[in-house]
Design goal:
The protein has an 8-stranded parallel barrel with strand order 5-6-7-8-9-10-11-12, surrounded by 7 helices. Strands 2-3-1-4 form a 4-stranded antiparallel β-sheet, with helices on one face. Helix 8 (244-251) links the parallel strand 10 (222-226) and strand 11 (256-258). With 346 residues, the chain is an alpha/beta fold. It has helices at 11-20, 43-50, 97-109, 134-145, 161-167, 181-189, 204-217, 244-251, 260-264, 267-279, 306-323, and strands at 2-5, 25-28, 33-36, 55-59, 87-90, 114-116, 150-154, 170-173, 194-197, 222-226, 256-258, 284-288. The longest helix has 18 residues, at 306-323. It binds phosphoenolpyruvate and manganese (II) ion. Residues 92, 118, 154, 174-176, 197, 227, 259, 262 line the site of phosphoenolpyruvate (PEP). The site of manganese (II) ion has 5 residues, from loops.
Length: 346
């Protein structure tokens, strides 16, 4: 953010005020302007600055991610219509046409409008099931279409990436690829909506900037998906960062989803994390399920069976309806402006 001042003599006062509120501003243009390096600045700070007579104008477009950030309460917030049920569901991997059709029919009967399924699986073990590739993407899409659902699969850097992206409605960037900027550009060029998983140890800023790569390359819209970070906990696969949910809602102009399945790594923990995610304001959850979890070819331990999926859908739908979390955080200035007497910093 570039804050142009009416005179260089005003810079020290405004800079001191910003420092007191945790923002480092660098004087530029011979002190006529202050450059704020932080890629996101809360509205109340921005508004307090804008109201100061010493501020001539504020330019939002320097430095930080430009497309991804929500710049103010009036900004249009592109929505992803998840429908009445805030759940994306499906197996970890599309294993065969029959199983994905069975899952699609069951999910559709619960009112779920989005069907996931992995087709090119990047596994930790090279001898583990790697997915059926582009033909699985076509099975997934056909199963989704039969029930008017949207199909979602991860697109990796594998040889069938193009054919896989072509086959589905929505492409996903997996956690292991979030940092690969050239991959993000390639995905963006497919021109499809993208679900961007958060990297296994990615900072919020890296995550936001990854989304910027997608949008810059041509993705029409993105949704963020928190899926848990590396953890020292011996019993959990990853640690779900629930705090990322209100943060993304606050700063980004795009929805935030949560994947409780990969965070939990274990079926019985999935619903509690899904409930927490929705209560924290997630627009939806992405949940792995399988008609016979014990036989799933990947992530069997965390897959919900179909009745458990139904219970989860009921719970999160009720929580989301009961809380009715406003789309944008309420605009409530709470900071005294730089011109006001500020005893704490005086
Ligand atoms: C997945 O959703 O199938 C997946 C592999 O997730 P992640 O990239 O978050 O590990
Ligand atoms: Mn999985």
């Amino acid at each position: 953010m570039l804050i142009t001042l009416t005179g260089a003599e005003e810079a020290p006062r405004l800079r001191a005020w910003l420092t007191r509120h945790g923002f480092e501003a660098k004087p530029v243009q011979r002190g006529q302007a202050l450059l704020l390096a932080d890629p996101w600045v809360p509205w109340e700070v921005r508004d307090a600055l804008a109201a100061d007579p010493a501020v001539a104008c504020i330019d939002e477009v320097t430095e930080g991610p430009r497309r991804v950030l929500r710049h103010g309460p009036a900004e249009h917030h592109p929505t992803w219509d998840l429908g009445a049920v805030p759940v994306v569901a499906g197996p970890c991997a599309v294993e065969d046409p029959g199983t994905i059709r069975e899952v699609a029919a069951y999910a559709a009967s619960l009112g779920i409008g989005w069907l996931r399924g992995g087709t090119d699986k990047t596994r930790t073990r090279v001898d583990a099931f790697q997915g059926h590739g582009a033909r699985a993407a076509r099975w997934l899409h056909e199963a989704a279409q039969a029930h008017g659902m949207r199909s979602i699969t991860e697109v990796t850097d594998g040889p069938e990436a193009e054919a896989i992206a072509e086959a589905v409605d929505v492409v996903m960037v997996g956690a292991r690829h979030m940092h690969a900027s050239r991959h993000l550009q390639r995905i963006g060029r497919f021109g499809k909506p993208v679900i961007l998983k958060r990297g296994l140890a990615a900072s919020p800023e890296e995550w936001l900037r990854a989304a910027e790569y997608l949008l810059e390359a041509g993705a029409p819209t993105v949704a963020f998906c928190e899926r848990g970070s590396r953890s020292a906990h011996p019993l959990k696969r990853f640690t779900l960062d629930v705090g990322a949910v209100p943060f993304i809602r606050e700063v980004a102009a795009f929805p935030v989803l949560v994947d409780p399945s990969h965070a939990a790594g274990y079926g019985p923990y999935v619903a509690p994390l899904a409930r927490a995610a929705i209560a924290a304001g997630a627009h939806g959850v992405i949940v792995e399920c399988h008609p016979d979890p014990a036989c799933a070819k990947s992530d069997a331990l965390q897959a919900l069976d179909l009745p458990a999926l139904a219970r989860l859908v009921g719970e999160v739908t009720r929580i989301q309806a009961a809380l009715a979390i406003p789309e944008a955080p309420e605009h409530r200035p709470f900071l005294p402006g730089p011109g006001a007497t500020d005893k704490a910093g005086a």
